[in-house]
Design goal:
Layout (H helix, E strand, L loop, with lengths): L6 H27 L2 H16 L1 H6 L9 H7 L5 H16 L14 H20 L16 H32 L9 H23 L6 H24 L25 H4 L20 H13 L11 H7 L4 H11 L4 H18 L8 H7 L5 H12 L3 H7 L1
């Protein structure tokens, strides 16, 4: 086998080898811990490894020698129609533990499947039927055709926007359901989406500067940037596997690629999964807001339920033997807040009272905050400043 690796091909080989190793580790983690997100990320890593193969092997002399030239010609290594769907379903499964791949989700893979059929037709025509180059008469790899690369760019862009929409959807739901939503904002999701959009921006830049995608020396820099970004996504994704304890309805959100109707917060809250039996359909007309308001106030003020650092709206609903939709709508209507702000407001007031009573002489500010229900310094500082227009330290200095 030809191994004529120079500096450029060797650099890409390093990324290729590590990508394959981490793809294996991600698949292993998926099987061991039933983490479906790791399976999707592992698939994405493998696709990225295959994506850089033409430049890695091309710079090693494969396009200039047989039978390696035919291997690169007829094996479609650059599956640009699959990169987007894999990152999209990785986002879905990462943010929602109850997400499961459904039959209709296979529709997302139709373009990639059609390209595989096209590649098979090309192979059979040239190598089996005609036994001479017909499709490859011009000696150009079909994976590097301008139409395919532009279509792949469009596909990846669409799925990036879809992934971003999914992230924003679940972010909105967490504030409706959780009192610790700031800890479930998935910083890692934002980071890998930024890395993914950088892939697209580099791709657009190089397409504009060098329209001929088969220009090996010039396009090598793009593949280096691509390799660095996918390497970051793969390794960081393995290290930052999120174990979300939030289970949304597996049908949520609606497929962003098929459109989604706009809903108000009160309507969105109906999409939250309940861990208690369903009650009859809840509407604004049949909710006694004042009754439930007093019930919730009692839980917060008398029972100090806000001190539970992992408090969910379903916990409040279970304590009152009702449906979380009732509580969510009541809080939106009567307090003009989402559940997260509602609970954090009580926590901030509790911290304020502790400071007023000079509890800081025995405890640190963070210790007081933790005692009052906060579970991170960042969330505590942000909530305190939001409700009192000053930092906890500034308020303490006033005493």
């Amino acid at each position: 086998m030809l191994f004529n690796f120079g500096p450029r091909s060797s650099i890409l080989l390093i990324f290729f080898f590590h990508g394959v190793v981490f793809a294996y580790l991600l698949f292993k983690k998926s099987l061991q811990y039933k983490q479906f997100s790791s399976k999707w990320l592992g698939g994405f890593a493998l696709l990225c490894c295959l994506y850089i193969c033409p430049w890695m092997l091309g710079h090693a002399g494969w396009y200039a020698n047989q039978p390696y030239r035919n291997i690169l010609f007829y094996i479609p290594t650059q599956q640009v129609f699959l990169l987007g769907p894999f990152i999209y379903f990785y986002t879905q499964s990462l943010l929602n533990n109850s997400f499961r791949f459904r039959k209709k989700d296979w529709l997302h893979f139709i373009p990639g499947f059609l390209y595989l059929i096209y590649s098979l037709v090309v192979f059979l025509t040239d190598m089996v039927v005609l036994k001479e180059y017909y499709f490859y008469e011009n000696g150009r790899d079909k994976d590097l055709a301008a139409w395919y690369q532009l279509a792949g760019l469009g596909s990846m862009s669409i799925y990036f926007l879809a992934s971003l929409r999914v992230y924003n959807h679940y972010k909105k739901l967490t504030y409706l359901e959780l009192s610790f939503a700031d800890q479930v904002q998935f910083t890692w999701v934002k980071r890998y989406l930024w890395a993914f959009v950088l892939m697209l921006l580099f791709r657009v830049t190089f397409l504009l500067i060098y329209p001929n995608w088969g220009s090996f020396p010039k396009k090598w820099w793009y593949y280096l940037f691509f390799a660095l970004l996918f390497y970051y996504i793969t390794i960081s994704g393995y290290a930052n596997t999120i174990r979300s304890n939030i289970y949304f309805d597996s049908d949520e959100p609606e497929d962003p690629l098929q459109g989604e109707s706009e809903n108000e917060d009160s309507e969105t809250s109906e999409k939250i999964v309940e861990s208690i039996p369903e009650t009859p359909k809840i509407t604004s007309e049949n909710i006694d807001y004042q009754y439930w308001k007093q019930k919730v106030l009692t839980l917060m003020e008398a029972d100090e339920l806000y001190k539970n650092q992992l408090l969910k709206i379903t916990d409040v609903a279970e304590a009152l033997e009702t449906n979380a939709r009732v509580i969510s709508r009541m809080i939106n209507q009567e307090f003009e807040m989402n559940f997260n702000d509602f609970v954090n407001h009580y926590r901030v007031q509790a911290v304020k009272e502790q400071i007023d009573q000079k509890a800081y002489e025995s405890y640190t500010l963070l210790g007081i905050a933790m005692e009052c229900g906060f579970n991170s310094k960042t969330t505590f500082n942000r909530a305190f400043k939001k409700f009192l227009d000053m930092s906890p330290r500034a308020y303490l200095n006033q005493q």
